[in-house]
Design brief:
The protein is mostly helical. It has 31 helices and no strands. Among the domains are: about 190 residues, Alpha Horseshoe (Serine Threonine Protein Phosphatase 5, Tetratricopeptide repeat); about 70 residues, Serine Threonine Protein Phosphatase 5, Tetratricopeptide repeat (Alpha Horseshoe), CATH 1.25.40.10; about 90 residues. Helix 18 packs antiparallel against helix 19, helix 19 packs parallel to helix 21 and helix 21 packs parallel to helix 23. It is elongated and about 110 Å long.
């Protein structure tokens, strides 16, 4: 966990969103917290660390802190090279970012070298006319200009202008920007070499047109020829035309001619020529961004070239197929992420049922990923998301099924970190339905995996889960043992809010053992940490724990003071149940003091809050989980009114209690008819 009480990934995701919104101060806070926590707990080569460092670099660059930005960009580039390879699109993007930062600092030589690397990589993966390739080419030209390498800059920018005109047209902002860059270089050349700037510009802008005109002339001449009586020769002619179009950046026309050529060669049964043509078709589809068609054609080409023993063509096919699969997987991954994010948003908005179709679509898309290991990993994560939804709506059998499937998938590809997380989530589900021994088995397995990965944050979580489970089983010594280990682990991880939670749980255990001095000490430490982080709910829970201890010690005045502070904190946190419970506990202190009239207003306020909660509860399992709260307050009101000599009011309260009990009984019966048991909710003492 970060110091903000979020996982590193959550902090990085939120920081990235804030950065896109231009909220630089808030974004920097989240990104630094996410980066530091991820770097410490997951390591420098983890994807979350890499993303955090790169985005921090982008943020600092926007703030003009180029030297600090450079350090983060360098770290992100080095890690990305090691993890994803030097030709991965994300690596190339980070290289371009580093080059841009160096350019702004006047470090032109290294900037030019890195922009050249980005250009070569993007040209290889995306093609010469892809927007990212052209953008890097324009930047390379500008850096070469800064170095005074004007001839080289002119050639690069000429090619950039040509590519932009073919890809976007002359009026596109990218074309205009690259033309301006070229004009700047040409002007400087004219000043130093006494050449005509207008002539140089005209040459640069017409170079692509001349080349295209040559191609069109060749095509026109070829189409004027009489159709050959030799079908194979006709197929060769269409193949040559298609290859020419492909080499001159006209993939649409290439597909048209190559498709005709392919049909003829298949008709003639010429496997050698068929392989060459279908390979070119795959390359054309790759240029067009039609990755599924590219994969289909290139797979066929690879099989044919392997069959006929063309090793050189096999190598080309494998390279193109790898590019197509990487690009395809990235597109599918983006769709998986979009659908999963939309599902989580539905959950956050309270539309849990609406999230299920989105997670199912995400799962279907994950299965389309070409790289088997990546597909299994992504499917496993989405299975976990879907399982969590089913758990939240009480469909426990389905939740267990999807958690189990997710665990199996991530285990197959050796992703121990996610396997541990899913095992822990399944353990929580078993604990929820009362199968505590099975919960312990899963928590123990998860703990071993997190220790193997040196993941202190999740190690601490599993130790807390084990401690809580032993508490349910009334094995308090074992609970204290695991919670003490959890406390040590969260402290090592620098997880302050996790440390506070462990302190609170330990305090509760010592309260059960009637060691109130230890309980007060732990609650006090927890309150201090929660206060540091403005965590109102955490402060309130610590104050409730302290008040309970003082009540047991019959220090009623101190107990009331702490309940009063807890009440204020629960209201700040917007926790209505916490408010109702605190009011009820305050009333009980007055009763313990023998001040029955003093307890009445607190009980009445607690009942009013619970009525508000009841009206907002939408599901039977949620209503059943609140049953004890209503019965406690209702019973206490009956006793108080009776003690105050108000039998009629006591009878009214009894009638209200019976009515609520009947509603609860109906909810329980509806749940019993379904497949899922009612959910559980821990109540504050």
């Amino acid at each position: 966990m970060t110091q903000l009480g979020m996982t590193p990934k959550e902090a990085v995701d939120i920081g990235t969103t804030l950065l896109k919104q231009g909220k630089l101060q808030e974004a920097e806070l989240c990104l630094r917290a996410g980066y530091e926590a991820s770097h410490e707990s997951l390591g420098a080569l983890h994807n979350t660390t890499i993303i955090a460092g790169n985005n921090l670099g982008a943020l600092l660059a926007r703030k003009g802190k180029q030297a600090e930005a450079e350090a983060f960009f360098r770290e992100a580039v080095d890690a990305s090279r090691k993890v994803f390879g030097p030709r991965d699109p994300d690596t190339l993007m980070k290289i371009a970012s580093l080059a841009g930062s160096l350019q702004k600092q006047g470090k032109a030589a290294e900037s030019a070298r890195l922009f050249k690397e980005a250009v070569d990589g993007r040209r290889e993966i995306f093609g010469a006319q892809h927007p990212s390739t052209l953008m890097s080419m324009n930047n390379l030209g500008r850096v070469l200009e800064d170095q005074g390498r004007l001839i080289e800059a002119k050639e690069v920018l000429r090619e950039t202008v040509s590519g932009c005109m073919e890809a976007f047209g002359k009026d596109h902002p990218g074309t205009q920007a690259s033309t301006e860059s070229l004009n700047s270089v040409v002007k400087k050349l004219a000043e130093t070499q006494q050449c005509s700037a207008s002539e140089a510009t005209a040459r640069s802008q017409t170079a692509a047109k001349d080349e295209a005109d040559e191609l069109q002339a060749a095509i026109a001449l070829s189409l004027q020829l009489e159709p050959s009586s030799d079908r194979q020769s006709e197929g060769v002619r269409f193949g040559q035309l298609g290859e020419a179009c492909l080499n001159h950046g006209q993939p649409e026309r290439a597909v048209e001619h190559l498709t005709k050529s392919l049909a003829i060669h298949r008709e003639c049964g010429n496997r050698v020529l068929e392989g060459d043509v279908v390979g070119n078709l795959g390359a054309a589809c790759l240029q067009l961004g039609q990755h599924e068609h590219a994969i289909e054609h290139l797979t066929q080409a690879l099989a044919i070239h392997s069959e006929v023993g063309n090793l050189l063509a096999e190598g080309v096919d494998r390279d193109n197929l790898a590019k197509a699969e990487v690009s395809f997987d990235k597109l599918v991954m983006a769709e998986v992420q979009r659908l999963s994010d939309a599902g989580r948003l539905k959950e956050d908005q309270g539309d849990v049922m609406g999230s299920i179709p989105l997670f199912k679509q995400s799962l279907e898309n994950a299965a389309r990923i070409r790289k088997v290991a990546l597909a299994k990993h992504v499917e496993g994560v989405v299975e976990g998301d879907l399982a969590t939804v089913y758990k939240n709506i009480g469909e426990y059998e389905l939740a267990i099924k999807h958690f189990t499937r997710g665990i199996s998938l991530v285990r197959d590809v050796g992703h121990k970190e996610n396997e541990g997380v899913l095992l822990g989530n399944l353990g929580n589900l078993y604990g929820l339905i009362g199968q505590h021994e099975r919960a312990i088995q899963h928590f123990t397995q998860a703990l071993a995996l997190h220790r193997m990965c040196e993941d202190l944050v999740n190690e601490g979580k599993q130790l807390v889960n084990l401690g809580a489970t032993y508490t349910h089983l009334k094995s308090h010594d074992l609970a204290i043992k695991h919670l003490t280990q959890a406390l040590e682990t969260t402290r090592k991880a620098g997880n302050r809010l996790g440390e506070a939670a462990c302190l609170g749980n330990l305090a509760n255990e010592y309260h059960i053992k009637e060691d109130y001095d230890s309980a007060i000490d732990y609650h006090t430490q927890a309150r201090s940490i929660f206060s540091e982080h403005d965590n109102f709910h955490g402060v309130a829970c610590a104050m409730i724990g302290l008040a309970d201890c003082f009540t047991k010690l019959r220090q009623h005045k101190r107990a009331l003071e702490h309940y009063k502070e807890a009440l204020a904190m629960f209201k700040k946190a917007g926790d209505q149940q916490g408010v109702a419970t605190t009011l009820m506990n305050t009333a009980l202190v007055f009763g313990d003091m023998g001040d029955i009239p003093g307890s009445l207003p607190f009980l009445q306020q607690s009942a009013a809050v619970l009525d508000t909660i009841w009206a907002a509860l939408a599901t039977d399992d949620r209503r059943v989980s609140y049953g004890d709260n209503f019965s406690q307050v209702g019973g206490a009101l009956q006793l108080v009114h009776t003690a105050l000599g108000q039998p009629e009011v006591a009878l009214e309260e009894a009638e209200r209690a019976r009515s609520r009990s009947f509603e609860l009984l109906l909810a329980q019966q509806r749940l019993a008819r379904g497949s899922a048991p009612a959910g559980e909710m821990a109540l504050l003492r």
